[in-house]
Amino acid sequence: MTELIRFDQVSYRYPGGQDVLGDVSFSIAQGEMVYVTGPSGAGKSTLLRLIAALCRAQRGQIVVMGQNLSVLKPRRVPAFRQHIGLVFQNFNLLADRTVFDNVALPLVVRGYAYADIARRTRAALDALGLLRYEKSLPLTLSGGEQQRVGIARAIVTKPALILADEPTGNLDPKMAMDVMRGFARFNEAGVTVMIATHAIDLIEAVPKRIIHLERGHISDRLPTAASRLGETHGVR
Amino acid sequence: MAFAEAGLERPGFFARFAQEHLRVFFFSLGKLRQTPVAAALTALVIGIALALPAALYVLTRNVETVGYSWRESLQISLFLKDSVSAERGAALAHEIGARQDVAKTQYISRDQSLTDFKAQSGFGDALGILDENPLPAVIAVTPARSVGKAGVQELDAELGRLPEVDIAKLDQKWLERLYALLDIARRAVGMIAVLLGLAVMVVIGNTVRLDIEARRDEIEVMKLIGAPDSFIRRPFLYAGFWHGLFGGILAWLLVTIGVHALSGPAATLAASYGSDFRLSGLPAADGFSLIAAGIVLGWAAAYVTVGRRLALIEPR
């Protein structure tokens, strides 16, 4: 399978702070779905941020979609990021724009024709059961619905890679399960999905490969529930 | 990198450019409409700042016009020698009048001078006791309009060297002082315009800076989804454009209102000096230049501010 992401002995330290990741190496193939697990402060979010070029590793090499991020020029970062769908725990929606406008934003940024933007946006909203809210403002929706708007925005460009940082952190169990199954559906459609989470019960419900982090290093010692999955779906 | 863009059409560069600018044009206007009071106050501050140099400019233009009308009354008086006969004097006036740098001449004979002096001075009886007419014959020379200050001085010197001429007198000191004052006023207008232009940039820059801070979260989201700086910057540049446009229009309006308010008293004052002078406002071309200046200042201020602030905002 084609390699989509490769980490070679990557280390990252906060400016003036402590080490967050140390000598992390792994590879993710195109079409995989991977959970990044670990306790708070293990470096899950930082790992996703490095992949999205939101920060730059001090050591090691990161290659994403054939692009070596160590040598990626700052002015090329936006164009690179346009091809990644990002989902966040706090949704990151624009409160003064309608659901439709929020979801359409990545397409507007890329300069598509308005007719195509409208069609593609409504298709994304429809896929997530949000079409009836297209004219609503995000804050009038529930947490689960807002997260689905965030996911619709992430998938509307049909990215090759979706990165989700604790996407179920603010959701109740049922909504969290719906969201996780949604990611699995996108993955089945061929999209590579990487989810940082510590929700082991959800991982158990939708079992996939796991990268487990402990204090910035990849670890084989999975939490009890996840260890069973690790045996069947692979760790690292 | 292979990306799924099936079914999506990307218009050509110019179509995309027009689509995006049209979108931001109305989007930024809509943003201003959301805060009408703040937008109006900003426009008012900019309007007043632009109106001040514009009003001074209008003032200097009007004073210049008055100066030019007075310029027409500028004359060179050629006092002829006593030995020059009345016939020769009249002929000389005719010769001088034929020159290209002279608009007209008037010969005033010695007798005519005496008659005029008696009538205007009230010393008629005193002059009567003199044995002979002490006043010389004079040729009043009006230079052509096209002749500049230096040309008039040259003409004065040249005519003064004529053998029939005793003294050539050109009294233009007052005019020189007026032109010097106008020159100072013009430079002052330029300096004030530069200073107030900078003030306009500071006002717009600060407004845009506050707008950027208020929309910090939005900018972070934009960066997260891969919006380039040019895309993020554009609405703020248009905000600067709108502030400058409205400020410029308001400045023109303020100057026009000011001229209208002063035109009545100015006409009355001019009439008392026997002049039909009318105060003129900002010509349309200058008015549009004022608006253009507002737009350029607004755009430039926004560009500088956004450029500096955007670099400081990174997604958390």
TrEMBL record, chain A:
Functional summary from the UniProt entry: Part of the ABC transporter FtsEX involved in cellular division. Important for assembly or stability of the septal ring.
Protein name: Cell division ATP-binding protein FtsE
PROSITE patterns: ABC_TRANSPORTER_1, ABC_TRANSPORTER_2
Keyword Transport: yes
GO MF annotation terms: ATP binding; ATP hydrolysis activity
Assembly and binders: Homodimer. Forms a membrane-associated complex with FtsX.
A Pfam family recorded for this sequence: ABC_tran
InterPro entries per UniProt: AAA+_ATPase, ABC_transporter-like_ATP-bd, ABC_transporter-like_CS, Cell_div_FtsE, MetN_ABC_transporter-like, P-loop_NTPase
A biological process from GO: cell division
Recorded family membership: Belongs to the ABC transporter superfamily.
GO CC terms: plasma membrane
Gene3D superfamilies, A to Z: P-loop containing nucleotide triphosphate hydrolases
Topology class, membrane: Peripheral membrane protein
Boundaries of every ABC transporter domain copy: 5-232
UniProtKB/TrEMBL annotation, chain B:
Residue stretches making up the FtsX extracellular domain: 74-166
Cellular compartments annotated: Cell inner membrane
Spans through the membrane: 37-59, 188-208, 236-262, 282-306
GO biological process: cell division
Claim: DNA-binding is one of the keywords in the record: no
Topology relative to the membrane: Multi-pass membrane protein
Residue intervals of the ABC3 transporter permease C-terminal domain: 191-301
Pfam families linked: FtsX (PF02687), FtsX_ECD (PF18075)
GO terms for cellular component: cell division site; plasma membrane
Keywords: Cell cycle, Cell division, Cell inner membrane, Cell membrane, Membrane, Transmembrane, Transmembrane helix
Family stated for the protein in its record: Belongs to the ABC-4 integral membrane protein family. FtsX subfamily.
Protein purpose: Part of the ABC transporter FtsEX involved in cellular division.
Self-association and partners: Forms a membrane-associated complex with FtsE.
Protein name per Swiss-Prot or TrEMBL: Cell division protein FtsX
This protein's encoding gene: ftsX
